[in-house]
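Q: Sequence in, structure out?
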Amino acid sequence: MKLASLKPGRDGKLVVVSKDLKWATSAHHIAPTLQYALDNWDNVEPILQDLYHALNKKALEHRFVFQPQHCTSPLPRAYQWADGSAYVNHVELIRKARDAEMPKSFWQDPLMYQGMSDKFLDPEQPIEIEDLDWGVDFEAEIAIITDDVPMATKVDDAAQHIKLIMLVNDVSLRNLIPDELAKGFGFFQSKPASAFSPVAITPDELGDIWRENKVHNRLNVHLNQQLFGNPNAGVDMTFDFAQLIHHAAKSRELSAGTIIGSGTVSNQDRQSGSCCIAEKRMLEIIESGKPTTPFMQYGDTVKIEMFDDHDHSIFGAIEQTVVPFQKQKTLTD
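A: Exactly. Output:
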């Protein structure tokens, strides 16, 4: 099943989207929003699935052309957005470039931070930046959405709580990160709003691509229409999504609608390219002693997408352009 949220409204309006992403139909009579659906998943999921099958059979009169530009994030805001760093190869590479040792615990216990979740960017919404000296970077990732997860959920029980899968651009301001981490309290200003794919899908939509609680498929990233990287998200993923859920729920319950990210997808095979500029810069430092790839500039565009074996887009695309920040006018301006 494929679901999306259309503008307007702070929480969007839930629609069911056809497998080929060509058609959609309102799900308002079943669940007005995706958060409502997740809160009542056991009851509404079978009804939404029936609607999805009818849409794919073209058996619905009230269908319309699906237009991703009219989408907000599947969850325009979430109770919780926790982003992991499951590709330890990526972490090791970043630390190696600055001659920092990596603790052995990084291979045994996931890294995770709690990000901004009160408002996400639309899949095609520009990335507004006030100062390019902040070092604007994209991070292409996979994310899952859970139902209610009890505290202390074991790894073996965690996978059943994975209800939906999305793509994500975890926007990072690289030059703000060092000072923040040096304070010992983690990311805040260096992690502005993230963007998610237009469509969230149930794991069964991926077929054999979804196994071992991982997405075994290439994630394509283009920077200014040029392929930047296409690593396989199922390769070199040290911690799968069940392990990430287990980690997040160690000392707390997770509410339905919790989003958990994989961290930047990264392969040891350098021919696969990278899913963020920082990783490519680190490789350049290791190879030649200095980085040559700049961070994003005004007008630069990043596109993140995944395709099936028939070259059909699975989630739709995240496509964003960096633009100067424009202060919102108020009534007193």
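The longest strand covers residues 162-169.
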